[in-house]
Amino acid sequence: MASFLWTVCLSFLLLASGSRGAAPRKPIDVPFGRNYVPTWAFDHIKYFNGGSEIQLMLDKYTGTGFQSKGSYLFGHFSMHIKMVPGDSAGTVTAFYLSSQNSEHDEIDFEFLGNRTGQPYILQTNVFTGGKGDREQRIYLWFDPTKEFHTYSVLWNMYQIVFFVDDVPIRVFKNCKDLGVRFPFNQPMKLYSSLWNADDWATRGGLEKTDWSKAPFIASYKGFHTDGCEVSVNAKFCETQGKRWWDQKEFQDLDAAQYQRLAWIRQKYTIYNYCTDRARFPTIAPECKRDRDI
Fold first, then answer.
1. Which of 12, 143, 186, 256 can pair with 99 through a Cys bridge, CB separation 3.0 to 4.6 Å?
2. Active-site residue 106, yes or no?
């Protein structure tokens, strides 16, 4: 009976109308084990509040991570995360979607740790057909170690949108007419991990992980997935208009969201591959369209 009531309530929330480009209503949080499983170093994951909140731990021996049980083609995926506090230089906290093939597709949030007093950097990236090198980096407008904040991906046939607390920080449009591949036919699992990357993560690897500050801990809750699960609904995954995130109003941002995206670009963006002429003398095709946003 409880399962039935949860399903009814969730269906009501997802059908209810709301702001454009984000989930219509806040989803019901479910326990970690409902949709996810740990992937390695199980002893480095701690569970709280009946499994509705977990902590990932990194020490000098290993990090850890988890992944979704299902694979998805399109949807809306979000997580409430509180980053490693204090001196987190060299660490990376990741939340991403990835397919399994050699020419894989991937949608990345990577949070690059800092030396105490310096701001976290959020790096996003998009891989299509095994090709990445589409990094963008921003500073956040808040301290992500103090409270939980929501990090979300909206993925449909028209666009991939990265959100931080419902603020769009990046849009990757379907530019197949320009010859750019777009993730549309490779199912992806959701992953999150906490690991050591002090060869590049902080100031290009100049700042190394201070293991005397270990263990480093990142906290997660709000394990939300609302996508087309391939193992269950494969026949619907390529059919448009079946889910709220596939409706016309989610095929583009609205004017207010474009204003917020412009605000992010003007005040908080510190790197954009589209403007890096030293690294990419020839501008990528999708970047030419991106300049019009």
1. 186
2. yes
